From TrEMBL:
InterPro entries cross-referenced by the UniProt entry: DUF1697
Protein name in UniProt: DUF1697 domain-containing protein
Highest taxon, organism lineage: Bacteria
Length: 188
């Protein structure tokens, strides 16, 4: 079975779109999703499935709509895709270290998009970048590096300019999801 990771957008943030992960896990298990596991409250779900990405995303969104009365966009990746995201970080170790030295809190994030942004969308988004807020893209991922803070970031606030559903995770969460996916994919 392929280990998949569903990244829910806008869950349990600022008291909105509240879903208890234990209830979500139970709901998905009852709907036939295999080996369901959640990680923290921001909507990270690991599960096993051989189904096609598009159909899985629609099915997940339907379960959430029916069982929790919420319309929540879902972005899916396989465990292999998450590993490739981490392995192919376009920022150098020096760039990351410099940002870590000056940033308040986390400095490296990845925006996971449902579809690859067009050149025009990337151009609109690029207009929001500056020396303190950098981005680089690779396919359906947008890597974000903040030299000060993600809070009040013009770049982070304008992800909608990419014309694709996006959900953002910090590097620590990405690393943990990769670790959990590796554990889940290990025969017991």
């Amino acid at each position: 079975m392929t280990i998949r990771i569903a990244l829910l957008r806008g869950i349990n943030v600022g008291g909105k779109n509240i879903i208890k992960m234990a209830e979500l896990k139970r709901s998905l298990t009852e709907q036939g999703f295999g080996e369901v596991q959640t990680y923290i409250q921001s909507g990270n779900i690991l599960f096993a499935s051989e189904d096609e990405e598009g159909a899985l995303g629609l099915r997940l969104e339907e379960v959430i709509r029916r069982d929790f009365s919420l319309d929540v966009p879902v972005v899916l990746r396989t465990a292999a895709e998450l590993r490739a995201t981490a392995e192919n970080c376009p920022f150098t170790a020096e760039e990351i270290a410099a940002a870590e030295a000056s940033s308040i809190g986390e400095c490296l994030y990845v925006a996971f998009l449902r579809s690859e942004p067009t050149a025009e969308a990337l151009e609109r988004f690029a207009a929001c970048a500056n020396e303190q807020e950098l981005f680089r893209t690779s396919g359906r991922e947008v890597y974000l590096l903040f030299k000060e803070s993600v809070r009040n970031s013009k770049l982070a606030a304008n992800l909608q300019k990419l014309d694709a559903y996006a959900t953002v995770r910090n590097w620590k969460t990405l690393s943990k999801l990769i670790s959990l996916a590796g554990e889940q994919g290990t025969p017991k």
